[in-house]
């Protein structure tokens, strides 16, 4: 399973879920969907915990994090109409005001196309992915392998 940044692709997962659909095995399909959601939900919880030690704006933005699920993938969504600043709280800002301060109380930029900060992007979500990602991928793959062996015993 190649992992590039924060995106992990489980080769054959879509074919597996289609085979489950053809076999009428909705119970295992639902378990795959739940396994997808659990990864996103655990990352969301880790990011919220990391944001708890940051600025008020970042804590508030982290409250907008939510895990979503489909049969073939899970995702983490951030921001809302009430928290349109969520991405700025996660990545910071490049733009300076006339006084030289970072715009609207954001932290310094930690996004892409930045030279000089080598810790990686983000303040709470992306660092949580870097810290917890490999462990969660292993847990996820163990569960998927178990579900595959239950659905299609040899």
H/E element sequence: EEHHHEEHH
Distance between the termini: 23 Å
Q: Taking strands numbered 1, 2, ... along the chain, how are they ordered across the largest sheet?
A: 1-2
How many individual helices? 5
Weakly predicted, low-confidence segments: 1-6
Helix content: 40-55%
Integer average pLDDT: 81
Number of domains: 1
Question: What integer value in Å does the Rg equal?
Answer: 19 Å
- Provide the β-strand percentage band: 5-15%
Apparent shape: elongated
Structural class by SSE content: mainly alpha
* Sheet with the most strands, sense and barrel status: 2 strands, antiparallel
State the total count of DSSP E strands. 4
List keywords for this structure.
HK97 gp10 family phage protein; 154 residues; two-stranded antiparallel sheet; elongated; 8% strand; 5 helices; disordered N terminus; mainly alpha
Write structural notes for this entry.
With 154 residues, the chain is mostly helical. The protein has one domain. The chain is 50% helix and 8% strand. The chain has helices at residues 13-23, 26-51, 56-62, 86-91, 125-151, and strands spanning 3-4, 7-8, 66-69, 74-77. It has a two-stranded antiparallel sheet. A two-stranded antiparallel sheet has the order 3-4. It is elongated, with a radius of gyration of 19 Å. Residues 1-6 have low confidence and may be disordered.
At a glance:
The protein has 154 residues and is mainly α. The chain has 5 helices and 4 strands.
Task: Describe the secondary structure blueprint for this structure.
Blueprint: E1 3-4, E2 7-8, H1 13-23, H2 26-51, H3 56-62, E3 66-69, E4 74-77, H4 86-91, H5 125-151
Antiparallel strand pairs: 1-2, 3-4
Helix pairs in contact: 2-5
């Amino acid at each position: 399973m190649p992992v590039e940044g924060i995106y992990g692709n489980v080769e054959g997962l879509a074919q597996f879920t289609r085979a489950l659909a053809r076999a009428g095995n909705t119970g295992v399909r639902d378990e795959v969907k739940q396994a997808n959601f659990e990864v996103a939900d655990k990352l969301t919880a880790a990011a919220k915990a990391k944001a708890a030690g940051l600025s008020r704006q970042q804590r508030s933005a982290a409250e907008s994090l939510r895990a979503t699920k489909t049969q073939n993938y899970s995702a983490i969504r951030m921001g809302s109409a009430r928290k349109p600043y969520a991405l700025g709280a996660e990545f910071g800002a490049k733009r300076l005001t006339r006084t030289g301060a970072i715009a609207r109380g954001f932290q310094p930029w930690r996004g892409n196309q930045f030279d000089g900060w080598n810790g990686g992007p983000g303040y709470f979500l992306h660092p949580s992915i870097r810290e917890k990602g490999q462990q969660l991928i292993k847990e996820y793959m163990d569960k998927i392998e178990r579900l595959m062996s239950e659905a299609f015993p040899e």
